Amino acid sequence: MDDLIRNLMALGLTEYEARVYAALVGIGEGSARQIHETSGVPRPRVYDIAEGLAARGFITIRRGNPHIYIPVEPGVVIHHLKSAADAAATAAAQGLDALSLDARSKNSPIWYVQGEWSIRRHAESLAGGVTRDLAVVCLDYGEIGEFARLIADTSRDHPVSILLPNGKRGIRKPLGNAFLHVPKPFCAFFQENIFEKIYCGPLSVDGAAYLLEYIFIADDRVCMIIYRENGVRNAVVITLPFITCVQRQFVNRMIANSEQIEGPVKAGGGL
């Protein structure tokens, strides 16, 4: 019984709530006196604990003299408790991640991000901070769906340009009012030494293979680069103006020398 009580408490019940509910499941239904005798919860407390469990939908009460308390099916209760715990964990992770993001942005102009959750959270924060426009270099079309809503939401209020170095193929998610661009050759040095070697293929350094997936640039203030290192996804967020401005100029130059797809991508459309 002690293990059961501990497990119910881990899911969010207090000790007395766990003891009252477990006692009711064990006896099927009962009065406050029977619950007290089975659970060990002081009888005066049984009444308010039972009312609280009833308010949460975990037991029902047959009013009378005395009241009879009946447990709701354990599967229903456990599902509710688990859902609430999952929601609390998600909210806590978001809150902690936001604190971490704020602290990093205050203390360092460059920081690394690991883990899918953190990468998405930082991308959302970057897009949420756009005041002028957003530019996206997309090299992995298979994954752009994960950022489709972020791009579409941002495009409602600000211009969004998406650069597609690999051509206009494979995109199935609607991207709101974003405009798509396919770059064309424009500068031999940049084309051969930067674009083709760094943007469009794997880059090997000291035995590690790096593959660029995305570059997000909010205005010319924040740049987020998402990449894979030996198959593991990571990101780096940069707010150092010397780097963000240069990156934005590279992207602007590619956009200026690109083929622009006419009109925004509409919901239900595809390329």
Automatic annotation (TrEMBL):
InterPro entries: TrmB-like, Tscrpt_reg_TrmB_N, WH-like_DNA-bd_sf, WH_DNA-bd_sf. Transmembrane segments: none annotated. Residues 8-74 form the Transcription regulator TrmB N-terminal domain. It holds the Pfam family TrmB. PANTHER family: HTH-TYPE TRANSCRIPTIONAL REGULATOR TRMBL2. This is Transcriptional regulator, TrmB.
